[in-house]
Specification:
The chain has about 160 residues and is mainly beta. It has one domain: Beta Barrel (Lipocalin). The protein is built from one helix and ten strands, in the order αββββββββββ. The longest helix has 11 residues.
């Protein structure tokens, strides 16, 4: 399960932006896609993601507007325990998501089809000040080469 050296170095640089544990969960809050800072996110006009806690689970509500103006909502409830949880509303056919915490402010998520095949890997990191979240996306089960997409979200 080796990660290419360039991808690992890129993630190390992002992680070195100074990530200290906060008293509260750094992922929780409302996050808006910053198109000016997201070099590879032309597929969206806008994206707002709300993350809250409910019964010990992360609850995600993601409101999207594609570049063509199509609106859709993706929702899920999950724990960062590596287990599969249902995802509802994905236009990419993703039906399951599994998340694992990598550190106090970072996690990796595996997006899966109904049959369990991993179709995408997302690495998410929140800055130490909690104002910015960076998400790197690779198609497939394991990161290989540079990310296919990089998305920067600002806390609202």
């Amino acid at each position: 399960m080796g990660i290419p050296a360039k991808a690992a170095a890129f993630v190390a640089v992002i992680a070195s932006l100074s990530f200290a544990q906060r008293a509260d969960e750094p992922f929780f809050g409302v996050w808006k896609l910053n198109l000016d800072k997201s070099p590879s996110s032309p597929i969206m006009q806008s994206q707002v993601i709300s993350l809250i806690s409910e019964d010990g689970l992360f609850v995600m509500i993601e409101d999207n507007v594609t570049a063509k103006g199509t609106k859709y909502r993706v929702t899920c409830k999950l724990a960062l325990d590596g287990n599969d949880y249902p995802m509802i509303g994905s236009t990419a056919g993703i039906e399951l998501i599994a998340g694992t915490r990598l550190g106090p402010n970072s996690a990796v998520f595996k997006a899966k089809k109904k049959d369990g095949a991993v179709v995408g890997t997302y690495w998410m990191t929140v800055s130490n000040d909690g104002k910015m979240r960076i998400t790197l996306f690779w198609a497939g089960a394991e990161p290989s080469g540079p990310p296919a997409r990089i998305a920067v979200h600002d806390r609202q």
